[in-house]
Every structure is written in C-alpha cells, then in structure tokens.
Amino acid sequence: MTHEKRIRVLVVDDVASVRKAIGRIIKSAPGLELAGVAADGWEALELLEQLQPDVITLDVDMPGLDGLQTLDGILRLRPTPTLMVSSMTQRAADITFQVLDRGALDYVAKPNTMEGGLEDFAGELTRKLRLIAGADVNRILQIRQRQAERAQRTIRKASIGASNEPHPYRDCCIALGISTGGPPALSTVFQSATPPLPPIVIVQHMPTHFTATLAARLDSISDLHVKEAETGDALLPDHVYVAAGGRHLRLRRRGQQVLVGYSNGEPVSSHKPSVDVMMEDAARAYGSACLGVIMTGMGRDGVAGCEAIRAAGGFVLGQDEATSVVYGMNKAAFIEGHVDMQFALESLPKLMSKHAPTTLRPANRASQGSPAI
Question: How many domains would you assign to the chain?
C-alpha cells in the first residue's frame, strides 16, 4: 500500500501565538506536515537548507530581517514556493505587494485574533499551501523579471476628456477577473495600456484594505485613471474600477449609465468579491458590448462569468499558460469552451483596444431585463 507524500511546511513568524496557531492548523490538515518553525528571518534561512521544506508560510511584517528581505534570501538560497501571511494593516498591504512583485506566490490575511474564529483562515491557508506546492518558482521568477524589464519607462498621466471628439468606447465595458499572480500581471498591463479604452472593471481576489492599495499603485503607473470602485460610481471610458475586498461588486444599468453597487452575502465560487458575480452583471448591463478577460489564478471563479458574457454575444480573452503564474481559472474557462482567444500577457493592452466594441462597431445589446439600481 502506497502513501501519498505529505507537503512539508516551514512556518515563519515572530509572534509565538501565531506560530502555534498555524502549526496546529497544518498538523490537523490532511496531506500537510509541519516541517519546522522559525521565529525570525535569520532562523528561517538557517532552517531552509536543513529542513528543505516543500512550501513556506512567511510573516510579512517582522522586526530585523523583514518578510521582503527574508523572501529575497529564500529565493537566492533555495527557491521555494512561499505563501505570505499578512496582517490587515496599511503597512502590511504595502509590503505584501512588494513581495508579490519579487516572487512570493500568494498571501493570506491574518484574522484580527488568532484565538478562535480561525475556520475561514485555516481553510484558505491549507487550500493555498496545497495549490502552490510543487510550483516551478524559477519559472515564475523569470516571468516576474520579464515583467519588471518591460515596466522600466516613464509614465505620464493622460488628460482625460480634453478632446472634443466623441469617445470611441462610449457604451461598452471590459470585465476582467484575476487572482493568484494578479498584482504583478496587472502592473504589466496598465503600465502599457493607453487611452482610449472602455471602462474596465477588475475583480482581483483580495481582502478589505488591500484593494485600495492595489488601485493606488496601478493609478501611479498608468495613463488611465484607476480607483477602488465606490457605490454610485458611473462607469466612464478611460477609467479602471477595482472591486473592493470583502464584498461582491455589482453593476446595474440606469438609462444610459451603468452604476457600481455592492452586495454582501455568501462567497460565490469560493470568493468575495467574485469574478462570476461581476461578469454576469456586466453581461446583463452591456450585452454583446462586453469584453471579458480571464487571467492567472487558482480555482474556477470567472468560468460562469465568461460563459455569461459569450452567451450575451460578447467576446472573451483568456491569458495563456506560458505567461500565467497559475494556469487555473483561465485554463478552466478555456477547456470548457468559454474563451474565444488566448493571449500572452504583454499583448493584452492592444487586444483590449482591438476587441472592445466601439461606437463604430455597434453591438447588439442583450441588456434587457438588467435590474435598475
């Protein structure tokens, strides 16, 4: 009788109670094994060669050698799939984006207290540990390096609305869903994307506090205007709306406008915000004038949304395997026949301009029945 090899996890955190809590979660999870614990970055690097873990959980904000410096050491000494564990603070959010840019595969947010109420955290932690185990970290680092090289240019914010000419993307939308590997990929896209473009709505799987930071980072490097979407926002061309974490972003047509709203409730496709919820609303609001984009990420959130967009007459682009950190959501949508065309990451800005319906290419809308706000 053969036994499946268990995934060996090294836990790195400067807080003893957090180390103990994560250790208990790993010990009780099928298929996972606690290889060891480290109280700081220096100890983690010492144990790296000794224990040779399959995956690492790494605290973002530590005294001395912080999460960013420790990750650099891990990737230099023995590239190992690393899951960042972040507190829900602005400083932690800022560092988290830096470590994702540098080569961490994903992150989980710590609950406010590690005493009780850990069920959701434990589920997300163990799910992501299993998914990143065995990832080709060197390949992912090569993708990150290519993205960083393309990013070396000066950005000047465009003057939106300065022209008196009618906007070519007056009543259409780009609905974009992305998860694991998303922040660096989005940076690559929006460093190159230039007006004119339709309004772009993004669901990136992230908790509260992180999405506002993501939007601000993208806005600082893009010719487009990027913001965290707020209730009542009317979707405008050359603007990008990032769904706030922890709630479902909703889109509803009111006359000639499509407005942003939010709803609470249970996760959909295991996520909140959910790509499926946003895309299905976009398909109802814009019909065939909706362009769907499904990108790197674990799981299958967005598959039903891509199906809804195509059923309404819209077009769907799916990121290819070669440029995806995790070929998961986009793979599922492609295999199930809900992607019209696959693309390499660097080609997406031009493809969005090419395939988004313009006023010169009238769309047959299927927005009847779209509920009003």
Answer: 2
